[in-house]
Amino acid sequence: MQDREYVITARGERRLRADLLRDGNPRRDRNPFLPLRRRRDSLARAAGLGGKKGETAMRYLEGSGKELAGPPLERADLDDDPLRQFLSWYEEARRLEAGDPSAAALATASREGRVRNRMVLLKAVDDRGFIFFTNYRSRKGRDLEENPQAAFTCFWPASRRQVCARGAVEKTSAEESARYFQSRPVASRLSAWASPQSEPIPPERAFLERRFREMEERFASGEIPLPPHWGGYRLLPDEIEFWQGRSNRLHDRFQYLRAPTGGWKIQRLAP
Question: pTM for this structure?
Answer without folding.
Answer: 0.78
